[in-house]
């Protein structure tokens, strides 16, 4: 792969999605764009990049971006955030919202939807008192392919093996060939929208819970600050922001403070009172 074409891909990702690709990641570009080259019947990645340079065709730009976006996720990832939601945070929020009977949740980079679907199953299993409440479970991502997967709720055996307890697999999934389809009653709980976190966001209600886990690591500091600024403005005063275990707000935002709830770290608006 020519050096100038690798640099073009790096600039393309930074401008279109804010993603910073390290100089050593030539192998990653080759691995992810190889299938695109074969699908389009081209002879090399260099040929693909030359086509990308010349082409005003948005479909080719979309296909390359889709291939390069990281889509790592899993059901009930890391377990403890979901345990804390079940045992402490959601019961607090239910008490605080008992008059208005509304709760808003947002998975801000949902990938194939396993995080937001985990939350939907958690709510359905553990909080029957929410029947009749207005619930918004928003799943957003920059990748249309991932949003389509979220809507379809079709997962491989490996994906369900990685995090779905057997009792939930039996209750909420149906076998389709070698895959598993999430029940429509869970999928219908989720509102799926295409949003690019580096662009201006449309109107959204303030959220009780926001997931932004293992996302910031793909951006430079300036982009991280801009994203966190937007996210914090969509968080309720007593709401909780979840980021990845290795991620921090240090140097990014002074309106959010870290708080330990049970065995989970969350971020809350400074001065916001607990529910």
Give the % helix.
40-55%
Structural class: alpha/beta
Indicate the mean pLDDT: 91
Tertiary shape: globular
The largest β sheet comes out as: 5 strands, parallel
* CATH C-level class of the largest domain: Alpha Beta
Q: Please report the number of helical segments.
A: 11
**Number of separate domains:** 2
Could you give the count of β-strands? 10
| CATH homologous superfamily grouping of the largest domain | Vaccinia Virus protein VP39
CATH-defined architecture of the largest domain: 3-Layer(aba) Sandwich
Radius of gyration: 20 Å
Strand arrangement, major sheet: 6-2-1-7-8
Describe the structure.
It is a single chain. This protein has a five-stranded parallel sheet, covered by helices on one side. Strands 3-5-4 form a three-stranded antiparallel sheet. α1 packs across α3 and α2 packs across α4 (58-68). The protein has two domains: 3-68, Chemotaxis receptor methyltransferase CheR, N-terminal domain (Chemotaxis Receptor Methyltransferase Cher, domain 1, Orthogonal Bundle), CATH 1.10.155; 80-269, Rossmann fold (3-Layer(aba) Sandwich), CATH 3.40.50. The protein starts with a helix and ends in a 6-residue tail after the last strand. The longest helix is centred in the N-terminal third of the chain and has 17 residues, at 80-96. The chain is of the alpha/beta class. The model has no long low-confidence stretch (mean pLDDT 91). It has eleven helices and ten strands. Helices cover 43% and strands 21% of the residues.
